[in-house]
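Chapter review: from sequence to fold.
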Amino acid sequence: MKQYNVTGMTCAACQARVEKAVSKVDGVTSCSVSLLTNSMGVEGTASDTAVIKAVVDAGYGASAKDSGSKASNGSGGNSVISGLEESLKDTTTPLLAKRLVSSLVFLLILMYFSMGHMMWGWPLPKVLENNHVAMGLIQMLLTIIIMVINQRFFISGMKSALHGSPNMDTLVALGSGAAFVYSTYALFAMTDAQMRMDMDGVMHYMHEFYFESAAMILTLITIGKMLEAHSKGKTTDALKSLMKLAATTATVVIDGEEKQVPVEQVSKGDIFVVKPGENIPVDGEVLEGSSAVNESALTGESIPVDKTVGDTVSAATLNTSGYLKCQATRVGEDTTLSQIIQMVSDAAATKAPIAKIADKVSGVFVPAVIAIAFATIVIWLIAGQSVGFALARGISVLVISCPCALGLATPVAIMVGNGVGAKNGIMFKTAISLEQTGKMQIVALDKTGTITAGEPVVTDIYPAAGVSDKSLVSIAKILEARSEHPLAKAIVNYADADGPEAGIKQVKAGNLSSTGNQADNQIADITGKLQQKDTTDYASILTITDSKAVAGNGLFGQAVYNTDIPEEGIKASDELKIYGGNARYISEITDIPSDMINVSEHLSENGKTPMFFATDKEFLGIIAVADTIKADSPEAIKQLKDMGLYVVMITGDNEKSANAIGKIAGVDEVVAGVLPDGKEKEIRRLKEKGKVIMVGDGINDAPALTAADIGIAIGAGTDVAIDAADVVLMKSRLSDVAAAIRLSHRTIRNIHENLFWAFIYNIIGIPLAAGAWIHLLGWQMNPMFGAAAMSLSSFCVVTNALRLNLVKVYDTSRDARYKRIALRKGLVVSAGSSDRSEVNAGAGDGRVDVNSNAGISNRAEVNGNSGVIDTNVIAGNTGKDNISSNKEKKEVIIMTKTMNIEGMMCGHCEARVKKALEAVEGVSEAVVSHENGTAVVTLTAEVADDVLKNAVEEQDYKVTGINA
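The token string follows.
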């Protein structure tokens, strides 16, 4: 989208006129004008010259914003920060202040002569006593001076009228000008009457003077404009505060010396240093040193983040302690700060759907008001009222009408709402996303990295009898250190960290005790007493000489002792074989105690992966690894449900693990076994039930984020420019999703309040000014009071929008209210309304309603769409096959085959095998277990064993046998 600066706009009618003019240019596909930031965004192939010409022809000024260079600008980027600073610079308020002071000086003098002597008996110079003509001339001259001071109203108003787009200034100019013209006529008529010695005529026309009204209208409107400009400036405070964070200088290492240079001169690849207390000038990677960096300016998180060699740092963040030497990786427009600023600015330039109503009204508002004012004058004259009375009513209609309040109702709230979001690390990319986020009904959460931490960690350790946890962990470490598998890395990282995070669990007689997390269920019949424990640190006395992965089973390592252990009869160079892997593999090496089998089943049921370890001499124990749920995930999901949202977890894990995690997290529904390319189909299924938010990492989940009504990228960190997402969360906290929804709710409510005020003000004010209530209630409005009301209307709208700065996005006190509103509108999706029995073809999804008595429901779509086999397993009941067909034809299950497969290590392995098998024609369902190393295939037609085998082995797994 090309960005332009627009000058000369004063109200919503101007904004509508510019949009209309530019939209007619050939090659322009869309145009969005922001009165708040005096900017315009244009999409299409039209040239800058054509766009600018259209704006100029419409009576306004325009210039293209400098696109700048991304290659070597500093942390702010000249084209981003410098351009925005220029467009947001408040040059209006100082000019209005000068105009106001000058106007007030002459207005006070005018009021003294026009009303002071008549109403309060203030003394007049003797030369003016009973000299009505001189008094009238003085009033006229003072009014002319005030009109000259505020000539911009007349220039802008008449210019807009001549271009066929009358605006608020046109209304002011017409009202003030009409009062002045009629007063001037009255002055000449009074002079003529005095020359004819017609004292009755003199007194009549003297009371027809409206000079003070003409001047007062201009002065009061100037007051309102100044208050409005000041308040509008406050709405962009968040954006301005972000721009102020940009460093102006950087300390760069040149030829081994530290030199301070302007930040604009820092190029990608330069080495720069940051001392304690300094802001980081550009995005970079730490080469040397360590420190704690306060990133609250970007993420809203006040707790400093530790940085060391290899970590990334961002421009505008504060180095609080140590010395850092970094290499610049992103400069100019590419820095995180510049991207955030650009995102907030672009969002302000877009329009929310709710603004369309105000835009349509604004486009015809001013001509309609002029017509009403003219009709008012004519009607009162026909009714027999004097010209002065009728004119006063028409002028009141002109000056009380306020199109600005309509035009500002939406953009000021959007700007402030975006600013509040930016302060809390919540980035709405458009006004549409800010409005729509609060209207969603379903939240689909990707499991990995969203609900869970995204990294497997050791959760439980179960040493065998006579083995200490230290010995088990140390021997597992030296074996797994040779592997790149994520589960292996989790064990190595745990061992290196001296095991501070896992609960050390040991098998004792009859129960399961723990020094860490308690087991969810009691495991019965665990026997055997612990003997004297082996506390040997194998990592210090063993060296792995050879290792190999055993496909689908685990890892084998050949180790030698590097020291003598006389008390155990061990000599240096003695060999020891070490094994690690699943239960089937280890059971081939040594016997696994039955109590340990029970433990492993319990771990699997709780979403954990048990890894067995043994030597050629004895069984050592179990280490459980899992992608742990983030500490705040259950509470965040509860908050979403408290707001009336239906929460779904989507994962590629097997059904058992996914169900366990879903129960702990508290989601309404679990969809398991979904590969990355199947998430988009799942989102489309959910969209049939209601409006959907998809929350993911923004990279692997890009198709799903795009398919959802609102895509939210969580944990973006420094990568805020995620194209697929509508909302970007800088932090990895799931609670920010609920915060974004709350902010959307509050912003939309604020817009509704603004629109209500803008419409109700004009609906009540215009009839009142026209004199509609004179005969009924005796109410009539002086034009000066109409001008005062007009001047305050926009100020009230802007001030109301500023209240959004007080919103606490993490406050849950209103959540129940949002749910009640959704229930009242019939927008809440219940568990019963979500068709958990329907799954995308080939995805092999399993859905679990974790809040009902229903068990796991699987449904696989048969190739060719000839029919669907729907198997529902109800808790406590036997399974029942419900066969339906899209072609009025039933499929018949011919047989099942059990395949023995090696190489599967986790839920993702299961999902790959499942997808490959279910893609084979004639396979209706494949139930895969990496723990058992099997795949149970349900067939609806004859399928050769070789076909099934090839489908699996093409995924790099080994089929060892197929049994019918």
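Two observations follow directly from the output. Residues 15 and 35 are 6 Å apart (CA to CA). The chain has a mean pLDDT of 78.
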